[in-house]
């Protein structure tokens, strides 16, 4: 399946937030602690201040299939629509983050999200720390990737 990768456009905002919230809820087993409106505000006004925000679009349905928010040092958000998981889209977006990095990337994932841990480790990330300082109050894992 072919996907278009575009820079975030606010016209996709509501669709993006819906996908993001559903994917995250399925991954960690809890509903988002923020309202839909607050999440949309975060996407439109805060996230893009320090991140390049890319969307993967299924052009046959004009459907948001994934989101990547990253900068030269961090992968801050990476979520794939439940209907598009397992198709290589996460790897494609992660590779874009690696290409634009300064040679090292960091990210956090929740410890309950075993699927994400396997994904990141398969893609060259290694565990460098553990903690639980996040809004969800869940244990998390800090990962690092270095360009070889």
Automatic annotation (TrEMBL):
Pfam families: Acetyltransf_1. This is Acetyltransferase (GNAT) family protein. One of its GO terms (molecular function) is acyltransferase activity, transferring groups other than amino-acyl groups. Keywords: Transferase. SUPFAM superfamilies: Acyl-CoA N-acyltransferases (Nat) (SSF55729). Gene3D superfamilies: 3.40.630.30. Residues 3-148 form the N-acetyltransferase domain. It comes from the Bacteria.
């Amino acid at each position: 399946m072919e996907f278009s990768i575009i820079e975030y456009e606010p016209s996709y905002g509501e669709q993006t937030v819906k996908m993001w919230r559903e994917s995250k809820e399925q991954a960690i087993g809890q509903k988002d602690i923020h309202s839909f409106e607050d999440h949309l505000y975060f996407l439109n006004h805060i996230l893009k201040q320090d991140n390049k925000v890319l969307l993967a679009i299924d052009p046959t349905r004009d459907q948001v299939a994934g989101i990547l928010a990253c900068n030269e040092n961090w992968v801050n958000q990476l979520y794939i629509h439940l209907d598009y998981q397992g198709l290589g889209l996460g790897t494609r977006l992660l590779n874009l983050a690696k290409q634009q990095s300064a040679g090292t990337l960091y990210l956090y994932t929740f410890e309950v999200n075993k699927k994400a841990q396997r994904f990141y480790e398969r893609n060259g990330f290694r565990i460098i720390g553990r903690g639980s300082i996040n809004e969800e109050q869940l244990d998390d894992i800090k990962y690092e990737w270095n360009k070889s």
